[in-house]
Model the fold of this input.
Amino acid sequence: MRDDFPRHLAKELDAADPLADLRDRFVIADDDLIYLDGNSLGRLPAATPAHLDRLVREGWGDGLVRSWPTWIEWGRRIGDRLAAHALGARPGEVVVSDSTSVNLYKLAAAALDAAGDRRTVLVDAEDFPTDRYVLEGLAAARGLTLRLLPSDLDEGLRLDELRAALDGDVALVLLSAVAYRSGALLDMAAVNAAARQVGATVLWDLSHAVGSVPVELAATGADLAVGCTYKYLNGGPGAPAFLYVRRELQSRLRQPIQGWFGRRDQFGMGPGYDPAPDLDRFLVGTPSILALAPLDPALDVLAEAGIDRVRAKGRRLGELIVTLADAWLTPHGFRVASPREADRRGSHVCLHHPEALRISRALAEAGVVGDYRAPDRLRLGPAPLYTRYVDVWDALDRLRGLAERRGWERVPGGPSRVT
Amino acid sequence: MRDDFPRHLAKELDAADPLADLRDRFVIADDDLIYLDGNSLGRLPAATPAHLDRLVREGWGDGLVRSWPTWIEWGRRIGDRLAAHALGARPGEVVVSDSTSVNLYKLAAAALDAAGDRRTVLVDAEDFPTDRYVLEGLAAARGLTLRLLPSDLDEGLRLDELRAALDGDVALVLLSAVAYRSGALLDMAAVNAAARQVGATVLWDLSHAVGSVPVELAATGADLAVGCTYKYLNGGPGAPAFLYVRRELQSRLRQPIQGWFGRRDQFGMGPGYDPAPDLDRFLVGTPSILALAPLDPALDVLAEAGIDRVRAKGRRLGELIVTLADAWLTPHGFRVASPREADRRGSHVCLHHPEALRISRALAEAGVVGDYRAPDRLRLGPAPLYTRYVDVWDALDRLRGLAERRGWERVPGGPSRVT
Done:
């Protein structure tokens, strides 16, 4: 079977790859390691250690508190860079702050509190856990009904399922643009239009989309979004998240965590909370500057690549996984558990196998880092900025080797703790 | 007047200072700069740049996602270190996460939601803005009455004012152990006892106390606390905050931001939110590992010093400020705007002057960094780990020189933006 797609074809794809040189912009400490988990934690950009060290020594060590007038703009400044290079949003619509979960809470609460007497909240039943949990808590506190939209673990949410659930009672819909397991990609423009028809607000979780597919928040008519920066954006472990609020909505929404960074004239420190007139009202407390700093060198690489070229390569890397999995793995009980058409998929691909947990561990021992997602999925995320076609070929080849000898049977199962 | 306390006496205090050698454990880039703003942003520990660089290159660059099983414990592990070295709390009672403002929101909401039909919330009218704003939002959302306790800008809250306001209708009291302007130190044991008598819960903000005075959460019977790590703890700009929940309360309180890090069996990613049985239920989203990392070398220095020695030196540094301000500055219209007794003061001292903003700027130009706090205070925070007695002497001497020639009159006023 291996002859169906010989390795030299992957090498030829690399030779023709316009992004190939960008691999050198990342730290590749172990060239034998095949890293297909950039959708969980992106690699370290080569410029980041020196950038961070300079910030620590000069900004903190020498500048001390005198650096704050610069630092205090970083959440907005980096938000504007994200808006321009990855999100298709306007200046002043994106800010980096807090975690994705906290941002989900703030924006969902703001939307629900502005939704009048609408009583229904919709979320994809298979959405990432924190999305479901945050909404569950907000809905319960307000006596609202949380409806879980039935969704296919392989194919994602069907638009007709969503349309059937949308009516004048729906306050808020929370959806992921790219599903965290299957990689299923939603048509954001179609979803936004359908929700608008019934007056519902859509809150997008872009965690698995940002930096891998062009997100056009303005062009698709998006109102609210959040997302994380440590996956395809390569911001570092637990890097702060972003939030987006369409400019026209900012003054009409209020979030409930009334911290001093959200107040008009913050440093007046006056009595009573008066929300800032703009996006600042969605801020809360003092941001970590060391956590924000790595986003600059990371965005430099993305800006140089261009999100459209990233997407083009991501499609082809995904197609290569699907092609090789069909040829080499399906006979061994694997199934491609993602949409088969590249147009309906983000930049990662899921494989189903009942022994996915053990397989992911055996694969790691064989030098391929993907990740396991409950209950029975192996997720492969070939981040386009630094993953070669030949890496995908080699990873699937090693997986085929494991499959042929059932090389995971001696590997322990048991609890998994990977973010 | 200068002869009242000649400079060589300050040098002698330094020669006898058991913590004097610890100054070398910090980066002192400019030995002419006198930094009295460690209560706003602590200095950079000398071990931090290499510690962080190693984390970035090895933990992130080489380890990649495989480092998460270690990282995911850091919030709790560092929380336990804080508990042991600075907070007088037990293991499993302190965790580092989010910002102080977000932690205030979580713990205050949890306390209010458990307070039955009590309808009153108390906060020091002069408390740090974010404390007042967060409570204002929570109280309004629940239809509760927020009462501002009258408090003296110089002397802090009087216990009899608090006692007069405490009754069976009080759900929650939010107080700072050390006031952010005056440095007034509250008697935590007395406050906790008074609140307990009427069944009210106290939430402590320890931001200006932690790392400067011994906080004995267990011994004083404290229930809830939050605080920041970038002041006397030297964790870096915007370093993540901590929260404390007394062990016996943990399973009885629920906070409203239901993120995945707060769920029992987080990586099961199951349906429905089920809060972790312990302190983990107060977590929300993925923590920034780069923001957490500097707390380890910072706590190493604090542990070596010992909080009691830090406190002893902090008292004397404060006394020196008061002595010199009385002798040199009072004739020029300054007033010590902090409790005069060291027992009633944390490690910073405030000076009142109508031109405080301009004075703080002129003083910075003269090589002394303190900070301005609205409306008319100059705050001097001589962090004991790295501030010499002679630094305080020199700072007050330069301030005296400014006062003699009214050297701030050519300096512009206008908005201030310092965290």
Summary: Residues 39 and 231 of chain A are 5 Å apart (CA to CA). Chain A touches chain B through 88 residues (CB under 8 Å). The two ends of chain A are 35 Å apart (CA to CA). The mean pLDDT of chain A is 96.
